[in-house]
Structure prediction request, 388 residues.
Amino acid sequence: MKEFKRILATIIATVLAVSGMAIYAPAMVYAAGTTYTATYYFEGNARGLTDNGSLSGDTDFVMTDGDSISLNLTKNNNGVSANCYVRYMYEGQELELSRITGVNPSQTVTKSYSELSSMFTAKNITIPENLGVSYGEVEIVNTYNPRITIKFSNKDPLASEIAVPETTYTKLTTDAAFNLDATRTGDGTLTYESDNTSVATVNADGNVTIVGAGTSNITISMAATDTYAAAESKIVKITVDKTSSEITVPATTYTKLTTDETFNLGVTRTGDGKLTYESDNTSVATVNADGNVTIVGAGTVNITISMAATDTYAAAESKKISITVSAVESTKEAESSSTSASASDSTSKTSDTPATGDDTHVWIFLMLALVSLLGLVGIRCRRYGTKS
Prediction:
């Protein structure tokens, strides 16, 4: 059964004394879990009163198993005992009427929850789960016997509610923990439950920790108490996306010679994925798992750099590095090239000189002409000499 939460707050009693009456009752406020006591005073010398008094209290008073209600009956010290009746009622039906005699100067009447339950059983009534104590009354039966009535009812619990600032969240896998900031109307304990702990977990205080990508629904509940009904649960949907990743390179093109040393591509990354490298022309250059490129031969090669997705980071956009490799000439090749160039130059310079093959007759003709010329010169020289 539920525990007692709210109680009869202020009780004022009006009573009849042996030789008259006076009306007053102190205000009393009770905390949950205590014994609830109403004090009635019998005083004065007035007689013949026939009007009814009244007893008022807090209608939110609920009794549960383990609680008790106590009536502390007190009179003045005039040496005369006082009598009264205490009547217990449930929904208009009398459960019990007890005559209390000899109140001088005081007497306490206590009813435990189990005794009240027995009253209900004796009348073939099921004791209500929420046993509400309603307003009581003081009824004047006769001059010497006031009758105090305590009323019980099936009290409906108060409504409770859970409120949250947001019912949906979109987060990244690298986001920090956060609180759902749930509030409540009522006195029940809030409980939290995640339906996908591989995406998000939640603790008893409503702190959510991101675990991985996906969707998780957090259900917030509040159970019923003695005073409040169970609240309608709230569901908070959390969608977690992977954090983006990126590959960064210092250069996307390289120009190399076949004699150049191995070099590294200098790749950096945002994310925790593994970098992979692939050459599309290993006859020009190869690349290892650390991004070291080795020149193999002349030509063009493209190196593709990739990074796969992980539990936390999305796959990165791949990067492509273009490498152009030129060949370096050897010493023999250089000498051969130089000889060929010299021969070509010599041919160019003697292109106007008659050759010795098919042009022999030309040479003979020239020689004969030269001889004839020399002979002619000699003859003329002699002629000039004779004349002198």
